[in-house]
Amino acid sequence: MKQTPALPRFIFASRWLQLPLYLGLIAAQAVYVFHFWVELVHLIEAAFGSQAALDALVTSIGYKNGMTVTHLSESITMLVVLGLIDVVMISNLLIMVIVGGYETFVSRMYLENHPDQPEWLSHVNASILKVKLGMAIIGISSIHLLKTFINAANYDEKVLMWQTIIHITFLLSALAIALTDKISHAQAPSH
């Protein structure tokens, strides 16, 4: 077997420089888990009448109706739950980037026989990862847009307009990525 020259081996080994980035994303994931539990505890406490927890929730969601909020309303509950869903979706995005990116760009994980291996990981590549990330970003953007529309009275008309335009841009970008991927696969020669 022919020995690979030193420079290509060094360049190929440089992929391991991404490892601290993935470890940093795992730390960010831990922060999201902590944030989720803090908000959930505040929601439960507010449901049982804690004014301090309710005030923390109202502040965190940016809810303003011109009056002092004295009870957990359906709108506030919905905004908090959408915020929790948003955290979960961002966490899912982080997992896709960490696991998929590591598998695609750094090193194989050898999870083929693991019972919890995600179905998508068995055929992940850079194109599939881009499409999955695009779809996740659209989902996150949808939740943000819904939160904004539910709490629309607290936003300027320009904010509503720009969030909608940005969401449509995400949709069009994801469609373009998926279409480009489909066209490139259709034109690729079969082996």
Characterize the structure shown:
Pfam families: UPF0114. This protein is mainly alpha-helical. The chain has helices at 6-13, 19-47, 51-61, 74-106, 126-150, 157-187. The protein has one domain. The chain is built from six helices and no strands. The model has no long low-confidence stretch (mean pLDDT 86).
Q: What distance lies between the first and last C-alpha atoms, to the nearest angstrom?
A: 24 Å
On the 0-100 scale, what is the average pLDDT? 86
The helicity comes to: over 70%
Helix count equals: 6
Q: What percentage of the residues does DSSP assign to strands (E)?
A: under 5%
Largest sheet: none
Overall radius of gyration: 22 Å
Output the structural class.
mainly alpha
Shape: elongated
Give the topology string: H per helix, E per strand: HHHHHH
**How many separate structural domains?**
1
What's the β-strand tally?
A: 0
Q: Would you identify the regions where 5 or more consecutive residues have pLDDT less than 50? A: none
